[in-house]
Amino acid sequence: GQNIDQPTEMTATEGAIVQINCTYQTSGFNGLFWYQQHAGEAPTFLSYNVLDGLEEKGRFSSFLSRSKGYSYLLLKELQMKDSASYLCAVLDSNYQLIWGAGTKLIIKP
Amino acid sequence: DAMVIQNPRYQVTQFGKPVTLSCSQTLNHNVMYWYQQKSSQAPKLLFHYYDKDFNNEADTPDNFQSRRPNTSFCFLDIRSPGLGDAAMYLCATSRGTEPYNEQFFGPGTRLTVL
Fold first, then answer.
1. A52, A50, A53, A36: which is closest to A90 by C-alpha?
2. Chain A contact for B98, CB < 8 A?
3. A99 phi, psi to nearest 5 deg
4. Which of A34, A41, B46, B102 could form an SS bridge with B34, CB 3.0 to 4.6 Å?
5. pLDDT tens across B10-31, in order?
6. Is the pLDDT of residue B103 over 70?
């Protein structure tokens, strides 16, 4: 079966750095997405990785290791508005998105 | 601005009373998706259309139907809503299925079943 694992919840402090991990087992791989979802709202795109390595985009970076079936999302200089759920999703061999359940990130002052 | 629009944002229906949710897009994307998302869970894909080609997920209940009359619009019909169908329903679009399939989401419709 196909599976995406990520922690259910994480807590961090405003101004700090947090790393949200995602491991996956899917039938094929055509890229990995990170989405941010605020409570009661739709997911919004953060990043896409298809090659190994780190992609940096402002305060957010995403890393991929295909051989390990592993990715992480790194958030720097945390702000209160970063409190949200972060969803990892993998594009499988049929180009279907397989979603993780999301990691709820709580930012404390 | 190009976007994905869902109406209504909040829908209340009674147990067993049919309901239709709508989605429209100005992105001119080929693919449209309907997802169901319950609290603290991953979005669950119900169906998707590649142009007019309809793709039903194997575990989508028969109670859920969809229509895509043209490129811009897609509808989700729930024929006899049960209490377990209360959820957020997300519509998304993408240009095509490969090689890069970023999905753009509408704001969602939160369905309450009384």
1. A50
2. yes
3. -100, 140
4. B46
5. 999 999 999 999 999 999 999 9
6. yes
Query: Strand runs (DSSP E) across chain A, as ranges?
Result: 3-5, 9-13, 18-25, 32-37, 44-49, 53-57, 60-65, 70-75, 84-91, 97-99, 103-108
**Mean pLDDT throughout A48-73?**
95
- Nearest residue of B to residue A50 by CA position? B100
* The total number of residues written for chain A in this structure: 109
| Full DSSP string of B26-84 | SS--SEEEEEEE-TTS--EEEEEEETTEEEE-TT--TTEEEE--SSSEEEEEESS--GG
Q: What residues does A3 pair with on adjacent strands?
A: A25
Average pLDDT of every residue of chain B: 91
Report how far residue A75's alpha carbon sits from residue A82's, in angstroms, rounded to the nearest whole number.
9
- The verdict on a CB contact (< 8 Å) between B101 and A95 is yes
Which pLDDT belongs to residue B95? 87
The shortest C-alpha distance from B110 to chain A (Å) reads 8
Q: State how far Cα A37 lies from the chain centre.
A: 11
